[in-house]
Design brief:
The chain has about 300 residues and is an alpha+beta fold. The protein contains 7 helices and 6 strands; from the N terminus they run ααβαβββββαααα. Helix content is about 40%, strand content about 10%.
């Protein structure tokens, strides 16, 4: 049975993209027309609809988002949305907030703010993802689910249904919706993803490093263990060379033929442990300082009110 749903050609897609950059109203009309004829297409967010996202750090997780938005708007910025950031594993709230600002010329001054709600804060840009975006609706690369009008495809079996509707047994192998390979569609060793990575080397640095590490581990696991070579020391077959160590040598030591500096490795480990401890201590003490500041502020306001009466 032939699919009666019209497809959007590459020429029409470029026309949509040009309209999105030049004529806001024409773009809206075209998208409405495509929806009326049930066409398959994808587009992007208009520049006029984009917002600037910042990260506000050191605010207590229980701080009301309405108060944060009001405090920023009092300074002269237009706030679109405020979201508390949660830990990616434990999902516990963190003393950080995403703030989406409506674009305006004075937004660059937002990074000079050092205090909000009687609390010292630090405002930064969010970390930008260096990965090729993948649509969670049709599983294709280059756009996102929000602006995709293609039929949904399952990331596990490749069939035309949402991933949330997947009901097949777990022993059935996965099937890629892009290359029909025996893996999920978001697998970073997929042939389609590798081809895109070669065309766009500036993207997917993190994914490429992860894949290379996985490949190295896999190749190491398949290599048979070899017995130690004792031909150079017949008198002492189990004696190790005096320069041998399980710790890696620094480049300077290796160039000079010196043994590895185990003390520097130990110092490095101690510094890492101390850094982790200080970060954890900061995450605990900052909310307490914020709470103490609010209590003192309320107490001062109460005393001033009593004195005025």
């Amino acid at each position: 049975m032939e699919n009666s749903t019209p497809l959007i050609s590459s020429t029409c897609f470029h026309m949509i993209k040009q309209l999105s950059e030049s004529d806001h109203f024409a773009h809206k009309k075209l998208i409405r027309l495509l929806k009326d004829i049930n066409a398959q297409y994808y587009t992007y967010r208009l520049h006029s609809e984009k917002s600037q996202r910042i990260v506000v750090k050191n605010l207590h997780p229980t701080a009301p988002v309405e108060d944060i938005a009001a405090a920023i708007e009092e300074i002269g910025h237009s706030v679109k949305n405020v979201i508390n950031i949660k830990h990616h594993q434990t999902k516990s709230p963190l003393p950080m907030f995403f703030v989406d600002l409506n674009l305006q010329e004075s937004d660059n001054d937002i990074f000079s703010i050092t205090a909000l709600l009687h609390t010292k804060v630090r405002i930064e840009e969010p970390h930008k993802k260096q990965e090729i975006p993948q649509c969670l609706n049709c599983q294709s690369y280059g756009h996102t689910r929000t602006y995709c009008a293609y039929p949904p495809k399952c990331v596990k079996c490749g069939d035309i249904h949402p991933t949330s509707s997947y009901i097949k047994p777990t022993d059935i192998p996965a099937k890629c919706a892009l290359c029909s390979g025996p893996h999920p569609a978001n697998y970073k060793e997929c042939l389609i993803f590798k081809q895109l990575r070669q065309k766009h080397p500036n993207f997917s640095n993190k994914s490429a490093n992860t894949s290379s590490k996985t490949a190295n581990i896999s190749s190491f696991n398949h290599q048979p263990l070899q017995p130690p070579d004792t031909t150079n020391s017949p008198g002492h077959p189990h004696q190790l060379d005096e320069n041998f160590s399980t710790h890696p040598r620094a480049y300077a030591n290796a160039a000079k033929g010196q043994p590895p500096n185990n003390h520097s490795n130990s110092t490095h480990n101690n510094v890492n442990s101390l850094t982790k401890f200080l970060d954890k201590f900061k995450s605990i003490i900052n909310p307490l300082l914020s709470l103490l500041t609010q209590v003192l502020s309320n107490l001062i306001n109460s005393i001033n009110t009593q004195n005025a009466n």
